[in-house]
Amino acid sequence: MAQKTALAALSALVAEISAGASTATEIERFLDGDSDGGVLFHALYGSVADEPIPERLLAVLRDCSEASEILPCAAAAS
């Protein structure tokens, strides 16, 4: 239920931007703390944000989350 409400709110905000609210206005809202930046992110990056994360990157992230130190994980990934 909460997901549907959040999706409806996001859809309304996206429609607001599409209807004429400028990206500059969304930046101001985000910087003022009036927005969590989700609408701004989608306005700036569009459908790229909806693309799946490549499996190789997910594997590196899984390995890093299990590692106790960041530097050895970063060295192993390169």
Kindly describe this structure.
With 78 residues, the chain is an all-alpha fold. Helix 1 crosses helix 3. It has one domain. The chain contains five helices and no strands.
Number of domains: 1
How much of the residues is beta strand, in percent?
under 5%
Shape by Cα distribution: elongated
Helix segment count? 5
- Give the mean pLDDT: 75
Overall structural class, as computed from helix and strand content, comes to mainly alpha
Low-confidence stretches: none
The multimeric state of the shown protein is single chain
Order of helices and strands: HHHHH
Please give the largest β-sheet: none
Short description:
By secondary structure, the chain is mainly α. Helix content is 69%, strand content 0%. Helix 1 packs across helix 3 and helix 2 packs antiparallel against helix 3 (38-45).
Give a quick set of tags describing it.
69% helix; 0% strand; 78 residues
Topology:
Blueprint: H1 2-18, H2 23-31, H3 38-45, H4 55-66, H5 70-77
Helix pairs in contact: 1-3, 2-3
